[in-house]
Design a protein that fits this description.
By secondary structure, the chain is mostly helical. It is built from eight helices and no strands. It is about 70% helix and about 0% strand.
């Protein structure tokens, strides 16, 4: 009996360690980065924090210096012309050399997400589509077929962002606190 009890304890410890380790690995894959900036931008623009993190994760993998082949820059992958347009709309002073600064990039990108959510009546899917492919493309697609995304890249982007948002919701809850 003692051997069975010891074996049970060993198996239980191994199972609990495996669960803890897998949760640790998953959280490493879905980190909360730039928590203070994300929290403030979320509050100011009424955009869910986990949506912001999901977009950043899929756009830049949290690398503030990344530049895409299309020349989008920073954590939220903003096109320089879009960043300048957002700054004009927000009526703020903007220097294009700061586009990769995390605070600037996140604030402009989150404002743009709110703008897109407003344009599409808070439809997350359409806002994410427009964030990736442009509002004009999404409006055109909606006229052709409301369930159609013409660009495979955009379709994949939307799926990845939505999956990441679900993972953030599951791992941290919808209203995690600043660290």
């Amino acid at each position: 009996m003692k051997t069975i009890g010891k074996s049970f304890v060993v198996v239980l410890v191994i199972v609990l360690a495996a669960i803890w380790f897998s949760n640790w690995v998953i959280k490493k894959s879905y980190p909360i980065k730039y928590a203070d900036i994300v929290s403030l931008a979320s509050e100011q623009n009424n955009v869910p924090k986990n949506m912001i993190l999901a977009v950043m994760r899929e756009e830049s993998h949290f690398d503030p210096n990344v530049i895409s082949s299309a020349k989008a820059e920073g954590l939220m992958q903003l096109m320089p012309t879009t960043a300048a347009w957002i700054a004009t709309k927000k009526q703020i002073k903007y220097d294009s050399s700061t586009i990769r600064d995390p605070e600037v990039n996140i604030n402009l990108g989150v404002w743009y997400l709110r703008y897109l959510l407003d344009q599409f009546e808070n439809d997350d899917t359409l806002a994410i589509e427009a964030y990736n492919a442009g509002i004009t493309n999404v409006i055109a697609w909606q006229k052709k077929n409301p369930n159609y995304i013409e660009f495979a890249e955009t379709d994949n982007f939307v799926k990845r962002v939505k999956k990441s948002k679900i993972m953030y919701d599951d791992l941290y809850g919808k209203d995690w606190e600043r660290h």
